[in-house]
Write a structure and sequence with these properties.
Layout (H helix, E strand, L loop, with lengths): L2 H5 L6 H120 E3 L2 H17 L4 H15 L3 E3 L4 H17 L6 H11 L3 E6 L6 H13 L5 E5 L7 H12 L2 E3 L7 H15 L3 E5 L8 H14 L3 E7 L4 H14 L3 E5 L8 H10 L3 E5 L7 E3 L2 H9 L1
Parallel strand pairs: 3-6, 3-7, 4-5, 4-6, 7-8, 8-9
Antiparallel strand pairs: 1-2, 9-10
Helix pairs in contact: 3-4, 4-5, 5-13, 7-8, 9-10, 11-12
Length: about 425
């Protein structure tokens, strides 16, 4: 009904109203049917659309699957192609590496060959330059020098045997040695001579001071027996040795075992009094071995560290006196038997030392008047002949004029 229909409701009859209601119901029914049909159509359309969408989706899925399959196949193909390309790249890279290695080896070999050639050239050049700048000393080069050297050694009171040894040693060191062509062979000869002499006079052995220290450590005195011919300075040397070791803090005792020579006891007494040293003495002509024995016993009883035994001078050819000296050694049992020789006597001192060594086996040598011997040949000869060390050198008249042996000083004396 419209709004105006309700406005005139009082004027409408019941029949008209029923008819209108029926008409209205019919319209409503028609409208409902239309709506139903419209709704069903919508549903159908919607379902159709859904079906179409599903169909489209299935189609799209199928297409996607097809695309994916195609893509997978394409990917597989591309992967295979990439692998093949990678293999080809690896092979190419390996070939490149091999090529580079081969090139490097060739280059290295070429460099090595070049270096070898350079080294050969340098070596040849060095030999050539060495040949120009250097020369080897031959026997002819040193023949005259060695002859003059031997004469010089003999004039310096070096024994013949020792001179021959020195010259041979110098020759062996010089011959074959390479020197500069501009050099003076005499310079090399002098150096070789010093080496040869140093070997001869460098005799192994302990010094007197070292032996004294060892004996003191044992609680015993060091017993030293001095031997030699007349006039070499044995008694004076005893005074110098006493003074030398007093200054080092030791207490010596002197045995006057020269009971044969007139005035010998008085001479040694003079030195003992000057130095404040105890002197053990007997009557003139008494047994020298007994005097030495008493001196050793005194040192042990009084705790004195050094016993110095003065003996009579005797020629090495005097058999009786040499036997007496052996007795003194047997009784006193000295730790050192020291030959005192005069450096100025040269080869005579060497012969004396050899004879004394054969008789009683000396342990060392003291050379007196060494300051007056400008030649020094005696020291060189004695050291080589008896193979015993030189212990001290007497250098003058005072008590302080004594020094332990110095090889460098002796070399300077010989070559000055």
């Amino acid at each position: 009904f419209e709004d105006e229909d309700f406005d005139n409701l009082d004027e409408i009859s019941e029949e008209e109203l029923d008819a209108m209601l029926d008409a209205s119901l019919e319209e409503d029914k028609e409208d409902d049917e239309k709506e139903k049909s419209g709704f069903l159509g919508f549903l159908k359309r919607d379902k159709k659309e859904d079906l179409e969408e599903e169909s489209e989706e299935e189609s799209e899925d199928a297409e996607e699957e097809t695309v994916e399959e195609v893509e997978e196949e394409g990917i597989e193909d591309e992967s295979e192609e990439i692998e093949e390309e990678a293999e080809e790249s690896d092979e190419s890279e390996e070939e490149s590496k091999k090529s580079k290695r081969s090139l490097f080896r060739r280059k290295k070999k070429e460099d090595s060959d070049d270096e070898s050639e350079d080294e050969d050239k340098k070596e040849k050049s060095g030999r050539f330059l060495s040949f120009i700048k250097e020369k080897s000393i031959s026997e002819d080069d040193v023949e005259d020098i060695l002859f003059e050297l031997e004469l010089g050694l003999l004039e310096a009171d070096v024994a013949m045997d020792v001179s021959s040894v020195v010259v041979e040693s110098v020759k062996n060191e010089l011959v074959g040695q390479k020197i500069k062509r501009s050099s003076d062979i005499e310079e090399y000869t002098y150096k070789a001579l010093k080496n040869a002499v140093a070997k001869i006079i460098d005799i192994d052995g302990k010094s007197m001071t070292e032996l004294l220290e060892e004996k003191v450590a044992q609680g015993e005195p060091l017993v030293v027996m001095l031997v030699g011919i007349n006039g070499t300075g044995k008694t004076t040397t005893i005074g110098k040795l006493s003074n030398y070791y007093i200054k080092k803090g030791y207490t010596p005792v002197i045995a006057a075992s020269d009971t044969f020579r007139a005035g010998a006891i008085e001479q040694v007494q003079y030195h003992a009094d000057n130095l404040g040293v105890k002197l053990i003495k007997h009557e003139k002509g008494s047994d020298p071995a007994a005097v030495a024995f008493d001196a050793v016993q005194h040192a042990r009883a009084k705790g004195k560290e050094l016993v110095l035994i003065d003996t009579a001078g005797r020629m090495q050819t005097n058999t009786n006196l040499m036997d007496e000296m052996k007795k003194i050694r047997r009784v006193s049992k000295p730790d050192l038997v020291v030959f005192v020789g005069d450096a100025l006597t040269g080869n005579d001192a060497t012969e004396q030392a050899r004879k004394f060594n054969e008789a009683i086996d000396i342990d060392g040598v003291i050379l007196t008047k060494a300051d007056a011997d400008s030649k020094g040949g005696a020291a060189l000869s004695i050291g080589y002949i008896i193979k015993k060390p030189i212990l001290f050198l007497g250098m003058g008249q005072s008590y302080d004029d004594i020094k332990e042996y110095d090889a460098d000083w002796m070399l300077e004396q010989i070559f000055s």
